[in-house]
Amino acid sequence: MQFKDQLNRTVHLPETPKRIVSLVPSQTELLVDLGLKEILVGITKFCVHPNNLRKEIAVVGGTKKVHFDKIRDLAPDFIICNKEENTKVMVLELEKIAPVWISDMCTVDDSLKMILDLGEIFEKSGKASEIVSKIKTAQKDFEKFILEKQSKKVVYLIWKNPYMAASKNTFIDSLLKLNKFENILSETTSRYPEISLEEMKSADLVLLSSEPFPFKEKHLLEIKNALQKEARLVDGEYFSWYGSRLIEAFNYFKTLH
Q1: pTM of the predicted protein model
Q2: How many structural domains is the chain composed of?
Q3: Do 94 and 163 fall into the same domain?
Q4: Where are the beta strands (DSSP E) in the chain?
Q5: Per-residue model confidence as pLDDT tens digits over 101-156
């Protein structure tokens, strides 16, 4: 069998995988929702959903740095990575252990294709289609909700010291657009550029994400005091996790308006 991943790489598989290592937290959650928990043998320390997963399945490192020997000992026959979350150096080393399938995520449509593709690979097409249908229904309902809402210029902060924000060609940016949030960094070439407080002044609203930097109430107050602008903390998982979490994301987005 052979399949194309989202970088258009051909991945050869002798049979349906039976031992998976997932190095992408949102896709780990998806695999569980596809009913594949029993064949999931390795995950990252950031794979926090479902909550108890890290107690049940071997943790092989983070998303940028893994223990290759530990992965090798797990004898996986399929490894899942992501272009942005994992490094090219990691992938080259992982390919010496098992076939590596890489996702590349910029839009909700990319996510839906990823879900269906993995459903096909693992012979879970029915469940994958069910998840995709739920996401599409939630998105259509949200699009009706947002139709009459006014757009706002926003900056979406992901890091502090220095401040960094999500720019164009990111999954986060695509979800901001669905919310009628006009990203003030949409013309920036870097996907996650540094941004100064002065530059943030052109925004109507500053969003402080819960990840990867864990912005808290004290950081929110700092921004509000410095800019005298509307600002709020947001759940980063709903803006950056591509997979089955999107089913609930659109209900969460309603609370932001």
Answers
A1: 0.95
A2: 2
A3: no
A4: 2-4, 10-12, 20-22, 40-43, 58-59, 78-82, 100-103, 152-159, 164-165, 181-183, 205-209, 230-234
A5: 999 999 999 999 999 999 999 999 999 999 999 999 999 999 999 999 999 999 99
